[in-house]
Amino acid sequence: MAALDPHFTDVELMEFLDGELDGARERQLETALASPATAAPLAARLAGLREVGELVRGHLELATDAHEARLRSMWSEIDKQLDLGSAPATSTTPARAPSAAGARRGLLGWFQRYRSHVLTGMVSAGAVAAVAIALRPAPTSERGLVATTLPAAGSAAPTPVAVVPVPVPVSLPRVAPVIESVDVPSGSSMVFTIEDDDGSTAVVWVTPDDTVEGL
Amino acid sequence: MYAKRSLAVALVATLAVLIGQVEVARAEPGVSCEVLEIKATQAATPSIPDSLKKLAKKLKRPPLSSWNFFELLSSSTHAMSKLVPKAVPLSTGAAELLVRDIDRASGKRPRIALGVTMNDGAGRRVVDTKASIDAADYFAVGYSTSDNSGHLIAVSCK
Lengths: 215, 158
Hints:
The complex is a heterodimer of chains A (215) and B (158).
Chain A: H1 10-17, H2 23-34, H3 36-86, H4 100-113, H5 115-135, E1 178-183, E2 187-196, E3 199-208
Antiparallel strand pairs in A: 2-3
Helix pairs in contact in A: 1-3
Chain B: H1 2-27, E1 31-41, H2 56-59, E2 69-80, E3 86-89, E4 94-103, E5 111-119, E6 125-134, E7 138-144, E8 150-157
Antiparallel strand pairs in B: 1-2, 1-8, 3-4, 4-5, 5-6, 7-8
Protein backbone atom coordinates (compact mmCIF):
# COMPACT_ATOMS: atom_id res chain seq x y z
CA MET A 1 0.00 0.00 0.00
CA ALA A 2 1.42 3.40 -0.94
CA ALA A 3 1.77 5.87 1.87
CA LEU A 4 -0.53 8.85 1.49
CA ASP A 5 1.72 10.83 3.72
CA PRO A 6 5.39 10.42 2.77
CA HIS A 7 6.43 10.83 6.30
CA PHE A 8 4.16 8.28 8.07
CA THR A 9 3.10 4.86 6.87
CA ASP A 10 -0.23 3.23 7.69
CA VAL A 11 1.57 0.77 9.97
CA GLU A 12 3.07 3.64 11.92
CA LEU A 13 -0.32 5.27 12.19
CA MET A 14 -1.86 2.00 13.42
CA GLU A 15 0.94 1.61 15.95
CA PHE A 16 0.26 5.17 17.03
CA LEU A 17 -3.43 4.36 17.53
CA ASP A 18 -2.48 1.29 19.54
CA GLY A 19 0.06 3.30 21.58
CA GLU A 20 2.93 1.19 20.29
CA LEU A 21 4.81 3.72 18.18
CA ASP A 22 8.31 4.41 19.43
CA GLY A 23 9.03 7.69 21.17
CA ALA A 24 10.77 9.77 18.40
CA ARG A 25 8.25 8.90 15.68
CA GLU A 26 5.40 9.44 18.10
CA ARG A 27 6.64 12.95 18.89
CA GLN A 28 7.09 13.71 15.15
CA LEU A 29 3.54 12.51 14.45
CA GLU A 30 2.16 14.60 17.31
CA THR A 31 4.04 17.60 15.90
CA ALA A 32 2.56 16.94 12.46
CA LEU A 33 -0.92 16.67 13.94
CA ALA A 34 -0.37 19.99 15.65
CA SER A 35 0.72 21.68 12.44
CA PRO A 36 -2.20 23.20 10.49
CA ALA A 37 -0.62 22.16 7.18
CA THR A 38 -0.47 18.46 7.93
CA ALA A 39 -3.01 17.98 10.68
CA ALA A 40 -6.12 17.58 8.52
CA PRO A 41 -4.93 14.78 6.24
CA LEU A 42 -3.28 12.92 9.09
CA ALA A 43 -6.39 13.21 11.25
CA ALA A 44 -8.49 11.92 8.34
CA ARG A 45 -6.15 8.95 7.86
CA LEU A 46 -6.18 8.20 11.60
CA ALA A 47 -9.98 8.40 11.68
CA GLY A 48 -10.18 6.05 8.73
CA LEU A 49 -7.78 3.56 10.32
CA ARG A 50 -9.67 3.73 13.64
CA GLU A 51 -12.92 3.01 11.85
CA VAL A 52 -11.39 0.09 9.95
CA GLY A 53 -10.03 -1.31 13.24
CA GLU A 54 -13.43 -1.09 14.89
CA LEU A 55 -15.00 -2.83 11.92
CA VAL A 56 -12.46 -5.63 12.10
CA ARG A 57 -12.94 -6.02 15.88
CA GLY A 58 -16.71 -6.00 15.46
CA HIS A 59 -16.48 -8.61 12.76
CA LEU A 60 -14.29 -10.80 14.95
CA GLU A 61 -16.66 -10.43 17.91
CA LEU A 62 -19.59 -11.37 15.70
CA ALA A 63 -17.68 -14.37 14.42
CA THR A 64 -16.84 -15.40 17.99
CA ASP A 65 -20.48 -15.07 19.01
CA ALA A 66 -21.54 -17.14 16.01
CA HIS A 67 -19.15 -19.98 16.96
CA GLU A 68 -19.78 -19.82 20.71
CA ALA A 69 -22.92 -21.95 20.56
CA ARG A 70 -21.04 -24.67 18.66
CA LEU A 71 -18.11 -24.48 21.07
CA ARG A 72 -20.48 -24.73 24.02
CA SER A 73 -22.08 -27.89 22.66
CA MET A 74 -18.61 -29.30 21.98
CA TRP A 75 -17.48 -28.65 25.59
CA SER A 76 -20.61 -30.25 26.94
CA GLU A 77 -19.86 -33.35 24.87
CA ILE A 78 -16.30 -33.39 26.21
CA ASP A 79 -17.62 -33.07 29.76
CA LYS A 80 -19.97 -36.02 29.20
CA GLN A 81 -17.14 -38.17 27.91
CA LEU A 82 -15.01 -37.24 30.91
CA ASP A 83 -17.86 -38.07 33.29
CA LEU A 84 -18.37 -41.45 31.63
CA GLY A 85 -14.72 -42.24 32.02
CA SER A 86 -14.43 -41.39 35.73
CA ALA A 87 -17.85 -41.93 37.32
CA PRO A 88 -19.70 -45.28 37.58
CA ALA A 89 -21.52 -46.13 34.43
CA THR A 90 -25.05 -44.74 34.29
CA SER A 91 -26.24 -46.80 31.45
CA THR A 92 -29.83 -46.77 30.44
CA THR A 93 -29.75 -50.55 30.19
CA PRO A 94 -30.92 -52.48 33.27
CA ALA A 95 -28.23 -53.02 35.90
CA ARG A 96 -26.87 -56.53 36.07
CA ALA A 97 -25.67 -58.38 39.17
CA PRO A 98 -21.89 -58.55 39.49
CA SER A 99 -20.56 -61.64 37.82
CA ALA A 100 -18.47 -64.29 39.54
CA ALA A 101 -15.48 -63.27 37.47
CA GLY A 102 -15.91 -59.70 38.64
CA ALA A 103 -16.12 -60.78 42.26
CA ARG A 104 -13.03 -62.92 41.81
CA ARG A 105 -11.17 -60.01 40.25
CA GLY A 106 -12.28 -57.83 43.14
CA LEU A 107 -11.10 -60.38 45.69
CA LEU A 108 -7.76 -60.78 43.95
CA GLY A 109 -7.46 -57.05 43.77
CA TRP A 110 -8.12 -56.74 47.48
CA PHE A 111 -5.46 -59.30 48.26
CA GLN A 112 -3.01 -57.55 45.97
CA ARG A 113 -3.71 -54.21 47.62
CA TYR A 114 -3.44 -55.58 51.15
CA ARG A 115 -0.95 -58.35 50.48
CA SER A 116 1.56 -56.99 52.93
CA HIS A 117 -1.07 -56.73 55.67
CA VAL A 118 -2.29 -60.27 55.12
CA LEU A 119 1.26 -61.58 55.12
CA THR A 120 2.01 -59.74 58.34
CA GLY A 121 -1.07 -61.25 59.96
CA MET A 122 -0.22 -64.75 58.78
CA VAL A 123 3.32 -64.47 60.05
CA SER A 124 2.03 -63.27 63.42
CA ALA A 125 -0.50 -66.10 63.62
CA GLY A 126 2.19 -68.59 62.74
CA ALA A 127 4.44 -67.23 65.46
CA VAL A 128 1.66 -67.47 68.05
CA ALA A 129 0.82 -71.00 66.93
CA ALA A 130 4.48 -71.99 67.17
CA VAL A 131 4.72 -70.59 70.69
CA ALA A 132 1.51 -72.35 71.71
CA ILE A 133 2.73 -75.66 70.32
CA ALA A 134 6.13 -75.26 71.92
CA LEU A 135 4.67 -74.50 75.35
CA ARG A 136 2.01 -77.21 75.48
CA PRO A 137 2.72 -80.35 77.55
CA ALA A 138 4.84 -82.95 75.81
CA PRO A 139 2.95 -86.08 74.70
CA THR A 140 3.66 -89.00 77.03
CA SER A 141 1.64 -91.74 75.41
CA GLU A 142 2.50 -94.39 72.92
CA ARG A 143 -1.12 -95.28 72.49
CA GLY A 144 -3.07 -93.81 69.69
CA LEU A 145 -6.32 -91.98 70.01
CA VAL A 146 -9.65 -93.60 69.42
CA ALA A 147 -10.13 -93.11 65.73
CA THR A 148 -12.87 -95.53 64.83
CA THR A 149 -16.46 -95.79 65.85
CA LEU A 150 -18.27 -99.05 65.67
CA PRO A 151 -22.03 -99.16 65.19
CA ALA A 152 -23.94 -99.15 68.42
CA ALA A 153 -26.39 -101.91 69.08
CA GLY A 154 -29.60 -101.34 67.22
CA SER A 155 -28.20 -98.66 64.94
CA ALA A 156 -27.30 -99.23 61.34
CA ALA A 157 -24.72 -96.51 60.88
CA PRO A 158 -21.77 -95.54 63.04
CA THR A 159 -22.38 -92.59 65.32
CA PRO A 160 -19.89 -89.74 64.87
CA VAL A 161 -17.94 -89.28 68.06
CA ALA A 162 -15.49 -86.55 68.82
CA VAL A 163 -12.03 -87.89 69.49
CA VAL A 164 -10.67 -86.46 72.71
CA PRO A 165 -6.96 -86.93 73.33
CA VAL A 166 -5.90 -88.07 76.77
CA PRO A 167 -2.22 -88.92 77.09
CA VAL A 168 -1.57 -92.33 78.65
CA PRO A 169 2.04 -92.58 79.80
CA VAL A 170 2.78 -96.28 79.38
CA SER A 171 6.11 -95.99 81.14
CA LEU A 172 4.46 -95.05 84.42
CA PRO A 173 3.50 -97.75 86.92
CA ARG A 174 -0.03 -99.06 86.88
CA VAL A 175 -2.38 -98.62 89.79
CA ALA A 176 -4.82 -101.39 90.58
CA PRO A 177 -8.49 -100.65 89.99
CA VAL A 178 -10.56 -99.71 93.00
CA ILE A 179 -14.21 -100.63 93.28
CA GLU A 180 -15.76 -97.90 95.35
CA SER A 181 -19.32 -99.18 95.53
CA VAL A 182 -21.60 -101.88 94.18
CA ASP A 183 -25.33 -101.55 94.46
CA VAL A 184 -27.37 -104.58 93.46
CA PRO A 185 -31.12 -104.10 93.93
CA SER A 186 -31.97 -107.78 93.61
CA GLY A 187 -29.29 -110.41 93.86
CA SER A 188 -25.74 -110.84 95.01
CA SER A 189 -22.48 -109.50 93.69
CA MET A 190 -18.82 -110.48 93.61
CA VAL A 191 -15.79 -108.44 92.74
CA PHE A 192 -12.75 -109.93 91.04
CA THR A 193 -9.48 -108.60 89.80
CA ILE A 194 -7.93 -110.30 86.81
CA GLU A 195 -4.20 -109.82 86.61
CA ASP A 196 -2.24 -110.26 83.42
CA ASP A 197 0.66 -108.59 81.67
CA ASP A 198 -1.73 -105.94 80.39
CA GLY A 199 -2.48 -104.88 83.93
CA SER A 200 -5.39 -105.38 86.28
CA THR A 201 -8.99 -105.66 85.22
CA ALA A 202 -11.74 -105.29 87.76
CA VAL A 203 -14.84 -107.43 87.29
CA VAL A 204 -18.11 -106.85 89.07
CA TRP A 205 -20.34 -109.87 88.66
CA VAL A 206 -23.97 -110.01 89.70
CA THR A 207 -26.12 -113.04 90.22
CA PRO A 208 -29.74 -111.95 90.21
CA ASP A 209 -32.07 -113.65 92.62
CA ASP A 210 -34.20 -115.17 89.87
CA THR A 211 -31.31 -116.86 88.02
CA VAL A 212 -29.51 -120.11 88.45
CA GLU A 213 -25.96 -119.67 89.70
CA GLY A 214 -23.79 -119.06 86.68
CA LEU A 215 -20.31 -118.96 88.09
CA MET B 1 -1.40 -46.10 58.04
CA TYR B 2 0.44 -49.20 56.93
CA ALA B 3 1.63 -49.91 60.45
CA LYS B 4 -1.88 -49.54 61.87
CA ARG B 5 -3.41 -51.89 59.33
CA SER B 6 -0.66 -54.44 59.83
CA LEU B 7 -1.11 -54.26 63.59
CA ALA B 8 -4.86 -54.76 63.25
CA VAL B 9 -4.46 -57.80 61.02
CA ALA B 10 -1.85 -59.25 63.35
CA LEU B 11 -4.12 -58.77 66.35
CA VAL B 12 -7.05 -60.46 64.63
CA ALA B 13 -4.90 -63.41 63.57
CA THR B 14 -3.42 -63.73 67.04
CA LEU B 15 -6.85 -63.70 68.65
CA ALA B 16 -8.03 -66.39 66.25
CA VAL B 17 -5.13 -68.64 67.20
CA LEU B 18 -5.61 -68.01 70.92
CA ILE B 19 -9.34 -68.74 70.67
CA GLY B 20 -8.48 -72.00 68.93
CA GLN B 21 -6.12 -72.87 71.78
CA VAL B 22 -8.84 -72.09 74.33
CA GLU B 23 -11.23 -74.41 72.50
CA VAL B 24 -8.63 -77.19 72.59
CA ALA B 25 -8.08 -76.56 76.27
CA ARG B 26 -11.81 -76.78 76.90
CA ALA B 27 -11.97 -80.14 75.13
CA GLU B 28 -9.15 -81.67 77.23
CA PRO B 29 -11.19 -82.70 80.29
CA GLY B 30 -13.23 -85.21 78.27
CA VAL B 31 -12.34 -88.82 77.57
CA SER B 32 -13.30 -91.39 74.99
CA CYS B 33 -14.87 -94.55 76.37
CA GLU B 34 -15.23 -97.82 74.52
CA VAL B 35 -17.98 -100.22 75.51
CA LEU B 36 -17.89 -103.87 74.42
CA GLU B 37 -21.04 -105.94 75.02
CA ILE B 38 -20.21 -109.62 75.33
CA LYS B 39 -22.25 -112.76 75.65
CA ALA B 40 -20.51 -115.67 77.39
CA THR B 41 -21.73 -119.25 77.04
CA GLN B 42 -20.46 -122.77 77.38
CA ALA B 43 -19.94 -124.60 74.08
CA ALA B 44 -18.28 -127.74 72.83
CA THR B 45 -15.86 -125.67 70.80
CA PRO B 46 -14.23 -122.72 72.55
CA SER B 47 -14.25 -119.49 70.59
CA ILE B 48 -13.05 -115.96 71.11
CA PRO B 49 -13.61 -113.80 68.03
CA ASP B 50 -10.90 -111.57 66.64
CA SER B 51 -12.87 -108.54 67.76
CA LEU B 52 -12.23 -109.64 71.37
CA LYS B 53 -8.55 -110.48 70.93
CA LYS B 54 -7.50 -107.65 73.19
CA LEU B 55 -9.56 -109.23 75.99
CA ALA B 56 -8.66 -112.83 75.20
CA LYS B 57 -6.20 -113.22 78.09
CA LYS B 58 -8.73 -111.95 80.56
CA LEU B 59 -11.56 -114.06 79.19
CA LYS B 60 -9.44 -117.20 79.70
CA ARG B 61 -8.83 -116.48 83.38
CA PRO B 62 -11.13 -117.22 86.29
CA PRO B 63 -13.92 -116.40 86.88
CA LEU B 64 -14.64 -115.66 83.20
CA SER B 65 -13.04 -118.94 82.21
CA SER B 66 -16.27 -120.60 83.40
CA TRP B 67 -17.39 -119.96 79.85
CA ASN B 68 -15.50 -120.75 76.70
CA PHE B 69 -17.60 -119.28 73.93
CA PHE B 70 -17.70 -115.51 73.69
CA GLU B 71 -19.59 -113.31 71.25
CA LEU B 72 -19.27 -109.60 70.71
CA LEU B 73 -22.88 -108.42 70.71
CA SER B 74 -22.17 -104.72 70.20
CA SER B 75 -19.37 -102.22 70.36
CA SER B 76 -19.53 -98.48 70.69
CA THR B 77 -17.28 -95.57 71.49
CA HIS B 78 -18.50 -92.50 73.33
CA ALA B 79 -17.00 -89.07 73.81
CA MET B 80 -17.56 -88.43 77.48
CA SER B 81 -17.52 -85.20 79.38
CA LYS B 82 -17.03 -85.10 83.10
CA LEU B 83 -20.27 -85.53 85.07
CA VAL B 84 -22.36 -85.88 81.93
CA PRO B 85 -24.05 -89.32 81.90
CA LYS B 86 -24.24 -91.18 78.62
CA ALA B 87 -26.83 -93.83 77.84
CA VAL B 88 -25.35 -96.86 76.10
CA PRO B 89 -27.83 -98.96 74.17
CA LEU B 90 -27.10 -102.66 74.29
CA SER B 91 -28.43 -105.54 72.24
CA THR B 92 -29.94 -106.81 75.49
CA GLY B 93 -30.88 -104.23 78.07
CA ALA B 94 -29.08 -100.94 78.49
CA ALA B 95 -26.22 -99.34 80.34
CA GLU B 96 -25.23 -95.87 81.44
CA LEU B 97 -21.77 -94.41 81.90
CA LEU B 98 -20.72 -91.48 84.00
CA VAL B 99 -17.19 -90.10 84.17
CA ARG B 100 -17.14 -88.73 87.69
CA ASP B 101 -13.59 -87.48 87.73
CA ILE B 102 -10.37 -87.50 85.75
CA ASP B 103 -7.15 -87.24 87.72
CA ARG B 104 -4.24 -86.19 85.58
CA ALA B 105 -1.63 -85.92 88.30
CA SER B 106 1.84 -85.68 86.89
CA GLY B 107 4.00 -88.78 87.19
CA LYS B 108 0.95 -91.05 87.16
CA ARG B 109 -1.33 -92.57 84.61
CA PRO B 110 -4.56 -90.64 84.24
CA ARG B 111 -7.01 -92.05 86.72
CA ILE B 112 -10.66 -92.11 85.75
CA ALA B 113 -13.49 -92.40 88.24
CA LEU B 114 -16.35 -94.16 86.53
CA GLY B 115 -19.96 -94.87 87.32
CA VAL B 116 -21.62 -97.76 85.49
CA THR B 117 -25.20 -98.93 85.64
CA MET B 118 -26.62 -101.90 83.80
CA ASN B 119 -30.21 -102.97 83.16
CA ASP B 120 -31.32 -106.36 81.93
CA GLY B 121 -33.51 -107.08 78.93
CA ALA B 122 -36.64 -106.47 80.99
CA GLY B 123 -35.45 -103.00 81.92
CA ARG B 124 -34.70 -103.88 85.53
CA ARG B 125 -31.68 -102.39 87.20
CA VAL B 126 -29.11 -105.13 87.73
CA VAL B 127 -26.18 -103.21 89.15
CA ASP B 128 -25.01 -99.70 89.91
CA THR B 129 -21.30 -99.52 90.62
CA LYS B 130 -18.53 -97.00 90.94
CA ALA B 131 -14.86 -97.63 90.33
CA SER B 132 -11.57 -95.87 89.69
CA ILE B 133 -9.37 -97.30 86.98
CA ASP B 134 -6.29 -96.30 85.05
CA ALA B 135 -6.90 -94.84 81.63
CA ALA B 136 -7.03 -97.53 78.92
CA ASP B 137 -7.59 -100.33 81.45
CA TYR B 138 -10.78 -102.37 81.26
CA PHE B 139 -13.56 -102.48 83.81
CA ALA B 140 -16.03 -105.34 83.37
CA VAL B 141 -19.54 -105.47 84.74
CA GLY B 142 -21.87 -108.41 84.09
CA TYR B 143 -24.52 -110.72 85.37
CA SER B 144 -25.62 -114.30 85.03
CA THR B 145 -28.73 -115.13 83.08
CA SER B 146 -31.27 -117.88 83.58
CA ASP B 147 -29.86 -119.98 80.70
CA ASN B 148 -26.54 -120.28 82.54
CA SER B 149 -24.82 -117.81 80.26
CA GLY B 150 -23.25 -114.49 81.07
CA HIS B 151 -23.94 -110.98 79.80
CA LEU B 152 -21.27 -108.40 80.42
CA ILE B 153 -19.87 -105.13 79.27
CA ALA B 154 -16.21 -104.18 79.26
CA VAL B 155 -15.54 -100.46 79.54
CA SER B 156 -12.26 -98.75 78.79
CA CYS B 157 -11.70 -95.02 78.81
CA LYS B 158 -8.73 -93.00 77.65
